[in-house]
């Protein structure tokens, strides 16, 4: 076992037992120490570590964090939650919540939907007098599953669409993945709604402590953050269409987020507070994660673990197995990046399998998907209830397994007829 892989497994292990460690130890602390260990042991040089950081994603997260904070402090998050809470039951509210954020994740990426949805999950839980942890876990599952449907839903889909091997990316993703996405979301609502506390139960009598106090937000203009969300959606969709028409016309999504958040900083009230109260800890987590995964890529750990399977990487069932297991060790974005570089041939079915399973693998552990980390870090920052590693896994693992098997089976079912239709 390489030192880089050993450090990565140690990071995973510490995060797994974090619920039994002092509360002061955060997820970003663990990842940052892991990055320092990679540098200190010479697994990656400072220059290579800097190059490994995807500054485009960091800029994108900065812009979306600013928009999400402004939506919360202006009261938009509470208004949305109040409308959802007017539905006839907590289950109906959850179903509407899942539908909205599945659509949002498909249009503006899962990370953006996670950022915008976290305060809404808190307020909605307070309004329906239910456990906020159920809505937070529902948000994690929703933005993961919903993002699978489009080439702009998450970073790994973007990598696959940008490879130039997917014809008409938007239509192709919808054709192959829309049906299993809808079914998986329905399964998620059914499974998670079983954990909702009834409105008249003793457990629901007390509202969430921290989030309840913050629910009303700080007040401010509503139109700047709303305009920012509209701008973000237009720019992200526009970038996807431009790239599909002519790759030279595409532009980094970090630029899209930077432009979209300008109304917040130019016209929003409390823009200085928005900047100061940005979720800097999560940004540090992602910078450290890129250093850790960069060291893993350089170590060749994936190639060594694949062994004889390297010759079968073009087979969809093999791709499904590698994508699901490898995403737990390397995280899904680095795994997809490495997988594409190792592929010797391309087929649409295999690429759809890679996109779908690497995404759905996020519904296993907290660190299996970046959006999970965003939600839980923001939850802690908003003084909400902590969600332990075991609770999270027990809640999402059945959804992760069922949705993965369902989606893989659907892709294999489509593979033959689609090949025949294309001649």
Automatic annotation (TrEMBL):
Highest taxon listed in the record's lineage: Bacteria
Keywords for this protein: Cell membrane, Membrane, Transmembrane, Transmembrane helix, Transport
Coiled coil regions in record: none
Topology relative to the membrane: Multi-pass membrane protein
InterPro entries: Cit_transptr-like_dom
The keyword Glycosyltransferase appears for this protein: no
Domain Citrate transporter-like, chain residue ranges per copy: 17-346
Subcellular location: Cell membrane
Name this protein carries in UniProt: SLC13 family permease
